[in-house]
Amino acid sequence: MKDDQVPQDDSPTYSGHKKLVYAVDQDGHYKKVQTSGWEVESFATQMAVDDINQRAADAAIAVKQGEASPLFYHMFKHRMDIVTLAQISGFFQWQIRRHLKPHIFQRLGRRKLDIYCQVFNLSIDQLTHIDESK
Amino acid sequence: MTEIENPLVHRQSSHCETGVVANMLTSQGITLSEPMAFGLASALTFAYLPFIKVGGMPLIAYRMPPKSIINGVAKKLAIKVNSQKFSDPEKGMRALDKALQQGQNVGLQTSVYWLPYFPEDMRFHFNAHNLVVYGKDGSGNYLISDPVFEKTVTCTADDLQRARFAKGALAPKGLMYTFETGQVNVDYSQQIYKSIKKTAKIMHGIPLPGINFIGIKGIFYLADQIKKLDTKPMKYTRLFLGNIVRMQEEIGTGGAGFRFMYASFLDEASEITKDKELFELSQFMTEIGDKWRDFAMQAVLYCKKRKQVSLEDIAEALIECGQMEKQLQRRLLALRASN
User: Fold this and answer.
1) Residues 6+ apart with CB under 8 A from A26
2) What pLDDT does B183 receive?
3) Within this chain, do residues A80 and A15 fall inside the same structural domain, yes or no?
4) Which residues of chain A have pLDDT under 50?
5) Which residues of A touch B283 (CB under 8 A)?
6) Residue A134: inside a domain, yes or no?
7) Between chains, do B125 and A44 touch, taking CB under 8 Å as contact?
8) What b-and-e string marks burial along B166-197, b requiring 16 or more CB atoms within 10 Å of the CB?
């Protein structure tokens, strides 16, 4: 990549930040060049972000309709899935799958709820309700 | 709370671990560029690990695993790394304060997700991020040199503690490290050739049947998988291809999955060793990096549903990358010190 060909596409995913890449000058020697983003990279990031946001939005609807527990929403909202949540919380995946059911989540003891509070850095009240604005 | 600010050279870098190592050592009087740290640690590779899932997608890596750069550079320059992990977060924070008070810059392994100074779209659950803490301000916030950012940043003690003790895959467990640098007395030329030889071997992959996901074999394996994507739903295909592009470009690789950074290392190495062939190899590596960028572009064009690009085309572009890397690998392996 030549230094004058380093893309400057002002990627929204960079939020105004600049990243550093390595590119060659006229003589083929390397130098550091800042970039405000590359449209190709930005598109890939946006796909992943949209996917996770879509999952959180779908989860919010499922929770409101009583099909899933608030945990389902918080999990996606915090960019996790069952595998990651199991690794972070220390629960088994089958336990988490149970906790995603509203009637089981409602009966969870304080000790288990506290673990989820810690994982998401939420209060008990925030954990057991969903507020999409946050 | 007393204010501490240890002397530190903050230079923006492409990648966190190489940036931290280069900046910490330079601050301690051992001038080192980021590409030189990357090259000396023989950190360049390729790996496609379908059995390890990150966010539901197979793991794709363009460099050696976390911590190999810290340890690799330290070994090559005969520097001692003092590292500590903690089971008790409070103890981990006290140890950090103590080291800062002693005038040391401290490298930390953290999660990205819990660092509030990261923009929202860059925050994900990756636990092997590296940064340097170089002081503490009057209100107890830590002064941080995060190498992927243009300027230094600050972070509250609560947030930093949460990031250091995040759980899950590659959990940092509060890892902190400092370098013990005395007089560095190494022959850079010799270490450069040694590290290049090692990279050539790593790129060749592991010579065992069935192990075809590391090194250049991994590139061809991934190309095969891309051809097979037409049996999968479009949504999965898009996320699969997008994931490759993100691992190659987004996560701080200096462009084209560290290939340009390695080319920059070869360029610098050629100047140190006065070996013209290293510069020629650097130019070839640049071509390879450009090819990878081309591959990323085709993959994204496909995701945008442009009809002129097929999965076959994308796989072909990737195979070309693999073939060029094979040529490079042979030339790197055949390299002999010129003096």
Assistant:
1) none
2) 76
3) no
4) none
5) 28
6) no
7) no
8) bbbbbbbbbbbbbbebeeeeeeebebbbebbe
**Contacts for A87 with CB less than 8 Å, ≥ 6 apart:** B167, B168, B169
Q: Tell the burial category of B302 from Cβ atoms under 10 Å away from its Cβ (0-12, 13-18, 19+).
A: buried
- Chain A positions in Cβ-Cβ contact with residue B284 (cut-off 8 Å): none
Q: What are the domain boundaries of chain B? A: 4-32+80-180, 188-334
Residue A133 lies in a domain: no
Structure tokens at B304: 């945008």
pLDDT of residue B2: 65
The CATH number that domain B4-32+80-180 falls under is: 3.90.70.10
**What pLDDT does residue A88 have?**
94
- Closest-CA distance, A123 to chain B, in angstroms, reads 15
Task: Tell me the residue range of the domain where A53 lies.
Answer: 44-128
Q: Are residues A74 and A122 in the same domain?
A: yes
Q: Report the domain count for chain A.
A: 2
Question: What token pair was written down for A30?
Answer: 């390397």
Q: What is the 3-state secondary structure (H, E, C) of B275-309?
A: CHHHHHHHHHHHHHHHHHHHHHHHHHHHHCCCCCC
List, for residues A45-69, the tens digit of each pLDDT value.
Answer: 999 999 999 999 999 999 999 999 9
Q: Can you read off the two tokens belonging to residue B5?
A: 């600010």
Nearest Cα residue in chain A from B304: A43
- Whether residues A51 and A24 fall in one domain: no
| Interchain CB distance below 8 Å, B245 and A121 | no
